[in-house]
Design a protein that fits this description.
199 residues; alpha/beta; 8 helices; 48% helix; globular
């Protein structure tokens, strides 16, 4: 929801370098993402802006349509790419899991510190999927995902980074802190290994 923040772009670059692949980071909020100050220094005006933003952002049918249209355009532009994957952070994770069901254009997908987790989304998955949760996601839903998706013969990964806050691999990453940097790096390495195996 915070748009293509520097920490997010750094992670995308890390994946591109590790796998020698094309990584595209769309700006679904068209230059008008959620602002961190709406949370850290709330005012009456920022509360109204936040409410309006969430009203648009939580229109998941529109968000999934936007992702599918973006993917179709990307496939047309880079027609030499034979296999496409997707992963999303927070809000983006919800959009990605919703587009990873039957008839998905993706070969593999993932969610990192995912927002709005629901077991129904996991039940609809049709491709290999990775979930890297923080200590901020609902433990019971993460466990349901794990119990459903992980096991012998299943290609999925569900792991909780128990010392990490929601946002540790995206806009809220505190890369100046050794512990966050270490887990940020481990998380992107884990994503790279997963996509290397399944793309």
């Amino acid at each position: 929801i915070f748009g293509p923040a520097p920490q997010t772009l750094q992670g995308a670059d890390a994946l591109a370098t590790a796998l020698d692949i094309l990584v595209v980071v769309p700006d679904f909020f068209k230059g008008s993402p959620m602002l961190g100050e709406w949370f850290t220094s709330p005012t009456e005006e920022s509360e109204q802006l936040k409410t309006a933003f969430f009203g648009k952002a939580f229109d998941f049918p529109q968000a999934t349509k936007d992702l599918l249209e973006f993917t179709a355009a990307a496939k047309s532009k880079w027609s030499q790419v034979s296999s496409w994957g997707a992963f999303g952070l927070c809000w983006g994770g919800k959009v990605v899991v919703l587009t990873s069901a039957e008839s998905t254009p993706f070969t593999a997908s993932g969610q990192v510190h995912p927002g709005k987790m629901e077991i129904a989304d996991a039940k609809a998955l049709a491709i290999p999927h990775i979930v890297l949760a923080s200590n901020g996601e609902p433990e019971e839903v993460v466990k349901e995902y794990h119990d459903l998706l992980v096991g012998e013969g299943k290609p999925n990964v569900v792991e909780t980074y128990g010392t990490m806050h929601h946002g540790w691999m995206g806009a809220r990453a505190k890369l100046e802190e050794d512990a966050n940097l270490k887990e940020y790096t481990r998380g992107y390495n884990q994503l790279a290994a997963f996509f290397e195996k399944h793309l």
